[in-house]
Structures
1.
Amino acid sequence: MQLIDIFDLSLIGRAEKSALEHEAHAGGIQTLTFGELEARSNRLARLLEKRGITRGDRLGFFLPNRVEFIDLFLACIKIGAIVVPINILYREREIGHILTDAEPKAVVTTLDLATHLPSGVASYTIDELSSAAANEPGNRVRVALDGDDPAAIVYTSGTTGRSKGAILTHNNFATNAVNLLVCWKITSDDRYLAVLPLFHVHGLGNGVHAWLASGCRMRLAERFEATRAIELFESFEPTLFFGVPTVYVRLLEMPGEIARRIGAKMRLFVSGSAPLPANVMEEFRDKFGHTILERYGMSETLMNISNPYEGERRPGSVGFPLPGVSVRLLDGELNPVGDGEIGEVYVSGPNVSPGYWRRPEATAESFVTITNFAGRLEAWFRTGDLGQRAGDGYVTLCGRRTDLIISGGFNIYPREIEEFLQEQPGIREAVVCGVPDERRGELPVAWVVADDPFEPERLEEACREAFASFKIPRAFVRVESLPRNALGKIQKHHLPPWTRA
Ligand code: MCA
């Protein structure tokens, strides 16, 4: 059984069942059955093969949330093409790096987004592909694949600044989907409201895959918009919802009566991608009548640890390792730390990526080999996150070994912005740190050593052209010099504090 076989339980096994509601381009809500999705993706698969895309080829997805994203994803899974999702907020500098690294046969995008692609990139618009595919036969397409075949390459930056492509195999995704169905009791009776971007594994690997594997009904929204949340929840009446903490902070703005009405129809709210503040969890329970279930995952490992569905969903904790996932908290010498002590989180299991695309050195740095009690060597993935385990097994994350900033659930790696700022005229040194923010968790701020004339507006403009909007420093603080220790390492906690005016 591979990933597509799990999805076939619905695409074929529940062919007549209503599967997906979305806002049709012509307006109104269109509903598709699993059988219709099966035929649509078969047609696209045949078209891709006609256009020379076969097993092992990469295909860039530079697409917003829309039903055709799912059609194309399924088509790739069926023929063994490798999906390369690209954050639609990315701009030429970020996209160019991904295309150079992954070397996709083509990028599939929309007319609007195509303007952000570097010139000369082979691309199709999803509308052209979908209309051309309509003439292809809709019967099944299946290519013999190994579960260890790459299904996707998901770009996630690293401390080095240039993003790395985490390879996710068919088996990684299959393991994750099965774990979530079992542990979060997701069934075909659920109604899943999808608001997270499909270019990230939270929306794709958790949301879409749990929907396809369970055969539940999904309403696909283009994105989360607080102003439309009430209408979405009230019209679709979901039982299942995945969000990042920023989304839950926004949902708390709802009037109490409406929140209670929505909560009465809901079965499960799940949070991840960033730490969920305990006060948000408590306020949410008071308002919606549900205790949010917090879990911990990464693009490189999908889901690792989750609070239990039954039993205590402990505020501030991410719960216990998922079935088949091994988690260890280790010190600098790779020895396990004691209960309550802080160690780095290491993960091993069928959910863990085999490594980074064409980056053997980055892969080597991210895995350690440990001899298990039977004397066998095992590869353990270094998450870069710090954690501690209580005596009863609950794991609590407590910071990061790296300087990662998570803003609204989006990952920001300071080095990428620091290197760019230091390329700007007049900027001698730059450091970017996250500052706490009620709504987004953290916001990026830059401290710079700059020559006269110091023009922060110009810096912001340059960043806006180069990066996704969520990465742009909210302020550029000029300092005489950056505080460094005896080894020359920047001591970020000695930077002059910045608070939003
Ligand atoms: C945000 N923007 C978007 C989207 N989201 N544009 C198009 N499609 C989107 N889905 C734009 C906003 O308009 C804004 O643009 C800019 O991005 C920053 O948005 P933000 O300031 O964050 O505010 P927002 O618009 O209210 O969005 C809040 C949000 C969004 C809905 C929480 O940040 C979001 O969808 N975050 C989820 C990210 C995610 O899926 N993370 C999972 C990564 P402008 O500045 O031009 O106005 S995977 C992961 O972390 C691991 C695997 C795990 O464990 O899950």
Note: The chain has a mean pLDDT of 95.
2.
Amino acid sequence: VKFIVDSLDPAMELGVDTAPLKSLQEDQLLFVFPSAQGTWTQQERKRSYKMFKRGTFKDATAAGPLGSVRGRTGSIQMEMEQASVQRHGFNEALSETISLHRRPPEARHPECFGEKYSEILPSASVVICFHEEPWSTLMRTVHSVLDTSPRQYLQEVLLVDDLSQNRHLKARLGSYVSGLDGVRLIHSTRRLGVGGCRTMAAAKAKGQVLVFMDSHCECHEGWLEPLLERVSQDRSRVVSPVMDVIDWKTFQYNATQWPVRGVFDWRLDFYWELNPPLQEIPPEEAVLPLQSPALGGGVLAIDRNFFQSVGAYDPGMLLWGAEQIELSIRVWSCGGSMEVVPCSRVAHLSRHHLPYIFPDQEMLRRNKIRVADIWMDAYKKIYYRRDTLAHLIKQVCGPEERLRLKRSLGCRNFHWFLSTVYPQLYVPQDKLALSGEVRHTHICHVCFSLCSSTLLCFCYSCTMWALATVQTTPGRNNSRGPLSGQLVHQQSQMCVEAVQQAGLLQSKTGEVHKPTAGGLYLKPCTRHPRQQWHFEQLVAPKGN
Ligand code: UDP
Ligand code: MN
């Protein structure tokens, strides 16, 4: 039996029992690698490989991301690439074949080459936290920092292993790094998550400026000096390079168009906004930094003392998600500022999907709720209306401590943030047409809660029953909708009907119909009392 094993975790080393594989045809089996990450007991090792047979990938390839299967050797490579995408969220197999020292093509504006920076700049600790990062992308990040940063400004590269299980990130990485000048490796004994890991590293960093960097980046020549220059001029200024994009499939480099700034929407999703709707930027200002309502987490430079005084990363946020939004609102509200520096560029690897298996499905949502509850004051309602499930989620950790920090730092409110920092964010005036308790006029044990102006959460006998979009704005003639006591489902134009209980219905002709279970139904609208609902408060929209 011939098989190819994943080069970084050889099946042999893991003690995989290959006996059952012997029954396979030679070209049936392509390669084997551990199906899960973690510490393995002897028992688990025996059954812990995943087999990738030819057919598996042919099908996946047809609709999948890597194109069609070529020749026999090509197809093996293709299948390995496909498997690595599944495992890591990007084409790690291809990355393995690319130099650890490659340089992205020049993308800076010609004006940047005329820029002069101070001779004396603060020293930088480049902090790279990682969790299960493949060898090639991690080491390409480290080498690109070492290859492009002037030694006099680079205090150290701090590599922090956030409790990875992968073997290559342990002894092999340790011995590799010991041969690199200025690189320190720390293994965390607890899973800290993105923010927690960075906060931990910050306490150990020696440089005056912290440069947080994702573990899959490639720096351009001259990326560091413009960032340090801006931070040294104002220690409460937090800066980011222009983030270029490495394609997850082809590993090709794509330059990001200037101007660009970081923003977020009412769902608290972060994105880079190309061509921000600002006044036109004249060409001679192509080298001027642009203030940014938020910055992504990919690469971020911040003065170490300012980072500590503004409250580091929020320790109440869970492993991953929205920490860049939390930091952005906090920096701005509590006396700092943020900007993107056009003459500094770093490329960040995009991903096909997130590769992590998180213990908590609601982690990202919990983090967003925390941001809303602590930082958005009354505006948090707008977030809650956009994520109706947020109402149902309990926080793991109370916001009291961060609210105290907010008070003690004298941070401004979210209204100030919106009007001063991010006036372009449209504040929706989604006034509720209806509010308060909703009761059925005849059946009392049906309850509703109104999640937003267009969404109703139905619960029936205290269990969540369904979600439906209802028309809460009465029609012009009020013939339908809540003013008439009806709840109309927008898509179907049917009415919500409450049926009290199961029972055999006998028609006039004596025919017995199937019993109907009690509950809520969508039925053609009638004037029947089963479709009559009573709202505690009814606010008719203006103009009606
Ligand atoms: N990371 C970490 N611990 C975690 C999750 C992520 O240290 O629990 C690292 C990850 O390896 C990366 C950085 O934090 O270097 C940011 O995470 P990721 O790249 O997944 O975020 P994205 O760029 O997708 O927003
Ligand atoms: Mn990343």
Note: The longest strand covers residues 337-349.
